From TrEMBL:
Membrane topology, from the record: Peripheral membrane protein
Organism: Candidatus Blochmannia vicinus (nom. nud.)
Protein name (Swiss-Prot/TrEMBL): Signal recognition particle receptor FtsY
Function: Involved in targeting and insertion of nascent membrane proteins into the cytoplasmic membrane. Acts as a receptor for the complex formed by the signal recognition particle (SRP) and the ribosome-nascent chain (RNC). Interaction with SRP-RNC leads to the transfer of the RNC complex to the Sec translocase for insertion into the membrane, the hydrolysis of GTP by both Ffh and FtsY, and the dissociation of the SRP-FtsY complex into the individual components.
Enzyme class: hydrolase
Entry keyword ATP-binding: no
Major subcellular site: membrane
């Protein structure tokens, strides 16, 4: 079996709706229309309709305008390649894979609002590193939702984790997390992934709680968390920009995961996030199964959406 081929084909299949809304519309337009200033208005509309922010759309259009000015009579193919490269370059700027070997235990604090797929993603992430022979521990830091700990335990079992640290006698997440960090250090785990509650509706309180959690982690390891990872749901499209801003302003996000790209037609929002923030997009979620998860790879992403 050709692993690389399968990997890409799964990605392509998952991005089908984004491809239809963003890639195919633009490809059709650029292949069939004369390259002139007029085509730029059409491209601009297609980008905006595909949930790409005004700022990012404007940046792409301005660069294409410069290209047309410098290359009068350019053909459709070279113009299309330029457009594709513009998009690719935005994504390459945030292409920084996560290296967990740098610390032991490497501590990832997972944050995000309710329902984005945080717990499922923790399971996927744990399984991904389990397959790489890493010992992974989880911390049940979402003490708000009664079922959250149970859900995390199920995920822990499914993903081959060595332990899920919980404490049913306290509702203080910082206390559970403090114990988990101590335990992960003692057991020499390679990776500790910490779940947290996501209640953006109670924004100030939620952010203060996350700040407290970080302070408590730092009592044990001043450099931790080594990654503060925000999970985003592709279905909310451009609204994820405000989620990134709120979390990043409060606790400085160091990595992003976009889930539910399968089925969503709003995968183009990832481009806006890459353009607005220079925060690496580490992984993407492309389904409900534990292995529906891939490191984010700009070349594959663009190739899955835009025909060559
Ligand atoms: N299609 C699809 N569904 C996903 C993906 N990731 C998560 N889900 C689904 O999204 C739903 C919510 O996932 P959870 O992991 O419970 O979300 P959560 O963010 O932990 O929710 P809270 O614990 O309430 O904060 C579940 O039905 C998951 O199966 C994905 O990449 N694709």
């Amino acid at each position: 079996m050709n692993y690389k081929y399968n990997f890409f084909n799964r990605l392509k299949q998952s991005l089908l709706n984004t491809r239809k809304k963003l890639g195919d519309n633009i490809t059709k337009l650029v292949r069939n229309k004369k390259v002139d200033v007029d085509i730029l208005n059409n491209i601009e509309n297609k980008l905006l309709v595909a949930d790409i922010s005004t700022q990012t759309t404007q940046k792409i259009i301005n660069n294409l305008k410069n290209y047309i000015n410098l290359h009068a009579n350019c053909n459709n193919k070279s113009f299309y390649d330029t457009l594709r490269d513009e998009i690719l370059n935005i994504l390459i700027s945030i292409d920084k894979p996560l290296l967990i070997e740098e610390r032991k235990p490497f501590i990832i604090l997972m944050v995000g609002v309710n329902g984005v797929g945080k717990t499922t993603t923790i399971g996927k992430l744990a399984y991904y590193y389990h397959l790489k022979n890493k010992s992974v521990m989880l911390a049940a830091g979402d003490t708000c939702r009664v079922a959250a700990t149970d859900q995390l335990e199920i995920m822990g079992k499914r993903s081959g984790c060595v332990a899920v640290i919980k404490n049913n006698t306290t509702s203080d997440p910082a206390s559970v997390i403090f114990d988990a960090v101590k335990m992960a250090k003692m057991k020499l785990a390679d990776l500790l992934i910490i779940d947290t509650a996501g209640r953006l509706q109670n924004k100030i309180y939620a952010m203060e709680e996350l700040k407290k959690i970080i302070r408590v982690i730092k009592k044990i390891d001043i450099e931790a968390p080594h990654e503060t990872m925000l999970v985003l749901d592709a279905n909310i499209g451009q609204n994820s920009i405000s989620q990134v801003r709120i979390f990043n302003d409060a606790i400085k996000i160091t990595g992003l995961i976009m889930t539910k790209l399968d089925g969503s037609a709003k995968g183009g929002a990832l481009l806006s996030i890459a353009d607005h923030f220079s925060i690496p997009i580490r992984y993407i979620g492309i389904g409900q199964n534990i292995d529906d998860f891939q490191p984010f790879e700009p070349h594959n992403f663009v190739e899955a959406i835009f025909k060559k």
